[in-house]
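ingest -> validate -> predict -> emit
validate: passed (alphabet ok, no gaps, 171 aa)
predict: started
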Amino acid sequence: MRITSFEQMEAFVRSHAGRKKIAVACAHDDVTLEAVLMAVDKGVADAVLIGKRAEIEALLRRFGKEPASFEIVDEADERASVDKAVAMVRSGTADIPMKGLMQTATFMHGILDKHTGLLEPGELLSQASVFEVDETGKMLIISDCAVNPAECGTKMQNCGQCREAGGLTWH
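emit:
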């Protein structure tokens, strides 16, 4: 199947994957929570909201959601919040860590921690951004524009990871 739009991508995800659980570190942010709630409402994800409980509950109410319907972990400290999200992914109780209202450096330190982080020795962390390009009728994936240096072997590994993560074929 060739995917050429976010609408098709969403349909593919709905038909090929079960709901994923997102562990959101510092979830007390309206933009972050809005994105998470969109995924929850579309049926592709469940969420554990880690952060300042009172602020998370107020935001949920503002978005018309009942806080009791969500798993909320009260944690005010940024690093402790990301550490809890990472621990959930490592243990298998969550599938995806997500950064909320926190410093990117703090989030990355938790993800990359040599003892408690998500990567095994020798593994490569990759980042990918997906764009729908109306003019071409194609999806564009840009990998590691800010994470890894542009060494050829590393870039080939990144491309392979993006292809594998998206269930893509080479064209």
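The radius of gyration is 17 Å.
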